[in-house]
Design a protein that fits this description.
218 residues; three-stranded antiparallel sheet; 16% strand
């Protein structure tokens, strides 16, 4: 039997990279929840739907959304980088503000996780999306370390960025995520906390795999 693994934590904690690698180690499916939001935006743009959220979700009901091999399938076809455009990013930002969209995706994410054998990351996976997940992690790091990592990442991509500006952005985002009305960021009571401030990615993965093996027989 394979299990559902939830990874939550603040912005910049490295959840996506860790979740992807953990899924690979365990032979599980990594589900990128952000890609699902982008898929909703993709459908809206493809159909030329404006700001009418109800119409967007009705259109989504007419499509078959699935997730396999690390990516979203729409009516059986991989979307790939088609959901990574700037237009999709902007539409995703608009739609994700609506509680109706979050509710719609809650049911979709739970459906995708039904069979187990998945690793899902976000800010409310263990508390809202998959409260019954067999293994829950809360991955965090100090604001300073998260800002430093984000700064190095963007610098490597050739961007001219200021470390202090990134620190301020992360601080504001932490406050916003913790105080938002819908599904705020918080640690599930049964989550295992991993502070990666002084750990390498490999250290974090080893700790997570050890915890899964300690709790369940793979």
């Amino acid at each position: 039997m394979k299990y559902k693994i939830a990874i939550d934590g603040p912005s910049g904690a490295g959840k996506s990279a860790i979740a992807r690698e953990l899924a690979d180690r365990l032979g599980y499916e990594y589900i990128d929840t952000g890609a699902l939001y982008r898929t909703i935006a993709y459908i809206a743009l493809e159909r030329g739907i404006g700001d009418a959220v109800e119409s967007v979700l009705e259109a989504c009901d007419q499509e078959e959304i699935d997730y396999r091999n690390g990516g979203v399938l729409l009516n059986g076809k991989p979307l790939g980088d088609a959901i990574r455009t700037e237009a999709i990013s902007q539409k995703t930002s608009e739609l994700s503000k609506h509680p109706e969209v979050r509710d719609y995706l809650l049911h979709l994410q739970r459906r995708l996780a039904e069979g187990g054998g998945i690793v899902m990351e976000g800010r409310d996976i263990g508390t809202v999306i998959l409260p019954g997940a067999e293994v829950k992690f809360f991955l965090t790091a100090s604001e300073e370390e998260r800002a430093r990592r984000r700064w190095l990442q963007r610098k490597e991509q050739g961007e001219a960025v200021d470390l202090e500006t990134i620190k301020e952005d992360i601080h504001r985002r932490d406050i916003r995520d913790k105080t938002r009305e819908v599904a705020p960021l918080r640690q599930a009571e049964d989550a295992i906390v991993i502070d990666s401030t002084d750990l390498t990615e490999e250290d974090v993965l080893d700790a997570m795999v050890a915890q899964v093996e300690k709790t369940y027989v793979l």
